[in-house]
Amino acid sequence: MAYNQRVSGPSVESIQASTRFCAVLGQPIRHSASPAMQNAALDALGLPWRYLAAEVRPGDLPAAIAGAKAMKFIGLNLTIPHKIAALELADVVDEKARLLGAVNTIVFETPGPTGDWIPLGRAADGQITEVRGHGYNTDAAGLARSLKEDFHWPDLRGAKVLLLGAGGAARAAALQLAEEGVAILFLMNRTAAKAEHLALEVSARFPAVMVMLGLPRGPADLVINATPLGLNAGDPSPLGGLDDDWLKSQRPRRVYDMVYRPAETALLRAAKSAGCQTANGAGMLLYQGAASLELWAGVPAPVDIMRAALLKNIYG
Length: 316
What we know:
The chain has helices spanning about 35-45, 60-70, 85-90, 95-100, 140-150, 170-180, 190-205, 245-250, 265-275, 280-295, 305-315, and strands at about 20-25, 50-55, 75-80, 90-95, 105-110, 115-120, 130-135, 160-165, 185-190, 210-215, 220-225, 255, 275-280. The chain is of the alpha/beta class. Strand 12, helix 9 and strand 13 (about 275-280) form a beta-alpha-beta unit.
């Protein structure tokens, strides 16, 4: 298929009565680059869909998902702070998402001609009857692919990793890293009890991985910020204020921040100053978004077009 190279956002005229919708739900959401990336992909694929972003408070999430289901949305993405809650709000959950304990993608489905459930994006007009939400997690695989690509690091086996955070994104990351075969996983979170709970879960599922709490002694192969700290200029450090001293004294080889806007957070600036390789979460956003689109549409995502739109939106 020859893809249209346009990467600008949708015009008002492109929205018709027959237009179908996808959306990302989160709080905050105004920083999201997903609409720019996904709408460029939808244009390239010639799909009469539009991708929206909606600010949804945690208490309103059940109603928001139910509303999207009632309006026959193609699907949803979930971002902070909704990924864990969405696990219980999907009608059926993919095995990998259940293992990771977080859902970042919902595919709305209807019974097909043979009785099997099919995505609404592949259902013919008039075919949609009953609708259910099928939950998936595309974050974890997107993170692994981004780490390998951004750092030119094809194999994570045997790595010593410090993971900051214990929420939905961190939980998926921890279990994916363990599945990738890292040797030692250090967990650090402002609420120690959450880090302890995650450590127990990773150890139970992947006993070959050594899991410890707190900062590692000696240089780590990788530090990942899986918290939202860094989205706002006044945010405290995800390292608890230890950025400069710890990074300069221990000098981890690689520092990855899931935050992608701003493109360079205070953590990444400090890491770069300390001589570490750095990368933000744009690659993770790209690959999880491409996987979501493929689940909704059933065709390969135009990754190069999505990347161009994403980078233009982030870096301007």
